Amino acid sequence: MKLQDKKQELIQLGSNVQQDWLTQQLDWCCQTIEANMQRYGLDFPSACATNGNYRIKPNDDWTNGFWTGMLWLAYEWTGRETFLVRAMENIHSFQERLENHFVLDHHDIGFLYSLSAGAGYTVTDSLLCQQQILQAADVLMARFQKKGQFIQAWGKLGDPKEYRLIIDSLINLPLLFRATEISGDMRYQEVAQKHYQTLLKTVIRENATTFHTYYFDPLTGKPSHGATHQGNSDDSIWARGQSWAILGIPLNESYSQNKQENGAQKDTSLTNAGFPQNYNEIVDVFLTNLPQDLVPYWDFDFNDQVPSDKDSSALAITACGLLEADKSNAYPAAKELAQGMIYQLGEKYSAKHETVNEGLLLHGVYAHAEGKGIDEPNLWGDYFYFEALMRLANPEWKKYW
Q1: One of 168, 299, 326, 382 is an active-site residue; which one?
Q2: Is 108 a catalytic residue?
Q3: How wide is the angle at C-alpha 90 spanned by C-alphas 84 and 91, nearest 5°?
Q4: In the chain, what are the domain boundaries?
Q5: Domain 3-260+283-393 grouped into CATH 2.60.40.3080
Q6: 144 alpha carbon, distance to own chain's centre
Q7: Pick from 348, 380, 354: which is nearest to 367 by CA?
Q8: pTM for the full predicted model
Q9: What's the pLDDT tens digit per position in 290-331?
């Protein structure tokens, strides 16, 4: 199926998305979250499920924010205080994690605190959440490497084996932009912009496909080479990595003013929407590689002729990215395409079709090479499916990022 045919099929599927359908999906999501909330108590679900069920864990992983983000979404949709109370209990857990600097030696501070404190501040104007955003932003900014102009993803700072950024980091940067909005301190925004520009020049290949990670020379800071961590190979296209680009670029651009507004000379690398010129190509790569049922395999090395496991989470992330891009008219028919993606997930990949399951989305992948979370729900898939439904049901919804 050609690219245009896939677009037309998604748009056709999207025509089925009406308010009644969205309400049914969101009500079911909230019912599922409430049932899970009773089992987890004050603890958190694991990053991915095992046989459809999440393990119960303390607040010690990079994924815990997705659970708290779903609590905030459930509260916003239902208005029920039970979700608010549990979300704020989570906020206190995240405060303790900050104070003890517990498992925070990585760049995923944005995933953790945008969806907990960031969401809480958006929804309630909580001063505790506001302060937590600033504290978390300080932790994230401390990982900035001047040699190379990037935020180091993992490992001990300066470790030559870990002197790299990864595509996922695009979603961590909004925390820094919000910190500047709150504090007026431009340092947060400046670090975010520097990392963003470095990433656009390195981890995104000339053909608009993406590396998962990109290394720099720790002595000179010069770009070295791209490599994978969760993809099928260094040269392949990890589906979720492409999705992070589709979402991460519009999230970051939402905080950036077009240079022309400030009287600056026109930057020919930007679209009229202020986006990188290759943003449309990045989206096209993803759409072109979709299989017959329009839900991607975990890596684009695979297709219907050479199949492997699907990663439904990548489609949910992409749908959110297109809905964010639609605000800037950055990609043609972005909303209609996103509607088709969410309808396909809701009708074919939703866990409502399997009652003995704690997730919202079936058939996700965490880390295929490590054998983790293969053909299982995962927290980010659940969260982004829920967020996309909320974006569609309530166009005035304020994002947590």
Answers
A1: 168
A2: yes
A3: 90
A4: 3-260+283-393
A5: no
A6: 21
A7: 380
A8: 0.96
A9: 999 999 999 999 999 999 999 999 999 999 999 999 999 999
